[in-house]
Amino acid sequence: MKLYLKIWRQLNPDADGKLVDYELNGVEEDMSFLEMLDYLNEKLITKDEMPVEFDHDCREGICGTCGLFINGRAHGPLAGTTTCQLHMRSFADGDTIYIEPFRGGAFQVIRDLKVDRSSMDRILQAGGFISTSVGDAPEANTTPITHAEAESAFDSAACIGCGACVATCKNGSAALFTAAKIAHLAKLPQGKPEAKQRVVNMVTQMDQEGFGHCSNTHACQVECPQEISVANIDRMNWEYNRARLLK
Amino acid sequence: MALTGLFLCLFLVVHLAGNLQLLLPKETAVIQFNLYSRILSGNYFIKVISWLLFLSIVLHSIYALIITIKNRKASGSAYAYDRRKVVSSWSSRNMGLLGSIILIFLVIHLKDFWYQYSFGTLPLDDEGNKDLFSIVVSAYGRLWYVILNIVAFMALGYHLLHGFYSAFKTLGVYPSKLSRGLYYLGIGFTLIITTGFIIIPVFVYLNYHT
Ligand code: HEM
Ligand code: FES
Questions:
Q1: Sign of torsion, CA A117 A121 A123 A128?
Q2: Distance (Å, rounded) from C-alpha A42 to C-alpha B133?
Q3: What is the b/e burial string over A98-121, where b = at least 16 CB atoms within 10 angstroms of the residue's CB?
Q4: Distance CA B51, CA B67 (A)
Q5: How many CB atoms lie within 10 A of CB B204?
Q6: What CATH number has the domain bearing residue A163?
Q7: What's the average model confidence in pLDDT over B87-116?
Q8: Are A159 and A223 within one domain?
Q9: In whole angstroms, how far apart are CA A187 and each of A73, A203, A232?
Q10: What is the pLDDT of residues A56-76, one digit of tens each?
Q11: Least reliable range by pLDDT among A47-51, A228-232, B26-30
């Protein structure tokens, strides 16, 4: 099929960027979205033009590195799907596709579609871990955890940190990401001893990085490729308010 | 934000309940509404509450302004092609606009009724109470004023549709059943408050002026 692409091109973080038009013939339905871009880049390289830079790693929907704003939506039109798992069969011959980087006040375009999302890493560094060395895996039954609790913690832990929640939020808030990282530890006995400092430190870091204030529009939950629930944000607010009040 | 918002929600219930007395048959309504207004304005507990309400509105508005400015900045540069409106509700995206409409209305509303009652000279009714009833009835004799009220109450409705539920989320109510319950409670609350407030000016206009 033939596509009309409008791709954000920007030389470096300080340069002004703009949408550049490309016509691309011979795109196949089975190509993933990123393969379509690879295909475009091959053509650009043979024409001695600069290829379009974009983030990717696993291309299996598990690492969270990819992330494009496609036709006005984070990760494109499908629910519960990363950009790398979106395939060209979701588009039709002759379509125009807008491709832009994930945006947010705490994000920075490095070049073209590549985005510096290290602000999210710094939120994790502020407390998204357990600070004891755990050694070998202990006997599983020494810490009783119900199946429901384990599943619920795992649902939160499924966040791959892609930043779609920030990109789609009108407030540029990282609440869903931060909340998922707080909740998966808050739900398990191992995370309890440090729960108070963790939530305070991570929320403080989130604010310092320049992410916005969550106003519960719930767009993040709709666009999250891992379908992380906004109930995590409620949990974070609960943990945070409690930590602040019972200090 | 959540605490001041919920306090204002609680006030809306009491305010609506009191005002619904305007719907009573005329003879009863005059006496009862004016008596009710006198009792309220003379009560020290109510005085404290009303200052708390003013304070809440001011704090709520200031905080709203701070958050809105902060969030504008945090949203980064605009997308060239933006379809994000399909993934969230209109009211949740327009709380600032809705709140501003409410604020403008509040100023007009307070000037016309609260200020008049507290500092103006009002005629007295047969019982010797200040006749706020007639002030209200004559205010709602103007069609444009009735329409202005309806617009403001609609804005309030959309503000509550998102705000009521959102406030509990901000406070951290996370159990899923409770959260779902509050979502439906929010819709019910919004419908009752909004229809209740809209009925009053419409009723007064139709009943006393046509
Ligand atoms: C009777 C009047 C009002 C009531 C009952 C009310 C109620 C609420 C409630 C319950 C919330 C949700 C709080 C949260 O999510 O934490 C809220 C949010 C908000 N209110 Fe009001 N409000 C009123 C008047 C106003 C006024 C006068 C303004 C503006 C000048 C305003 C601006 C806002 C804004 C911008 C938000 C969104 C805050 C956010 O994004 O988290 N409100 N309101
Ligand atoms: S490249 Fe790893 S999730 Fe898409």
A1: positive
A2: 79
A3: bbbbbbbbbbbbbbbbbbebebbe
A4: 24
A5: 21
A6: 1.10.1060.10
A7: 96
A8: yes
A9: 31, 17, 10
A10: 999 999 999 999 999 999 999
A11: B26-30
Torsion, Cα of B2, B8, B12, B15 (10° steps): 160
ipTM for the predicted complex comes to 0.92
**Who contacts B209 (Cβ-Cβ below 8 Å, separation ≥6)?**
B140, B141
B173 in reach of chain A (CB within 8 A): yes
Number of domains, chain A: 2
Q: Which residues pair with A3 in a beta bridge?
A: A24
Residue A10 per-residue DSSP state: -
Tokens 């209740």: give the residue.
Answer: B196
Are A240 and B86 inside 8 Å of each other by CB?
no
What does the CA dihedral A67, A68, A72, A76 come to, rounded to 10 degrees? -70
Residues with CB under 6 A from ligand 1: A 215-216; B 1-2, 5-6, 8-9, 12, 57, 60-61, 64, 67-68, 95-96, 99-100, 102-103, 159, 163-164, 166-167, 170
Q: With a cut of 90, say whether residue B153 has pLDDT above it.
A: yes
The enclosing domain of A68 has a CATH number of 3.10.20.30
Residue B98 has pLDDT above 90, yes or no: yes
Report if residue A23 sits inside a domain. yes
Mean pLDDT rounded to a whole number for chain A: 96
Ligand 1: centre distance to CA A234 (Å) = 18
Q: Are A125 and A225 within one domain?
A: yes
Mean pLDDT, chain B, rounded, equals 95
* CA-B96 nearest atom, ligand 1: 35
Q: What is the pTM of this model?
A: 0.93
Q: Output the DSSP codes for B117-167.
A: HHHS---B-TTSSB-HHHHHHHHTTSHHHHHHHHHHHHHHHHHHHHHHHHH
Residues A59 and A158 reside in one and the same domain: no
Q: Does some domain include residue A240? A: yes
A247 pLDDT above the threshold of 80: no
State which H helix or E strand residue B44 sits in: helix B44-74
**Predicted local confidence at residue A70, as pLDDT:** 98
* Residue A125 belongs to domain spanning: 117-131+146-245
Tokens of A5: 């692409």
Same domain, A25 and A75: yes
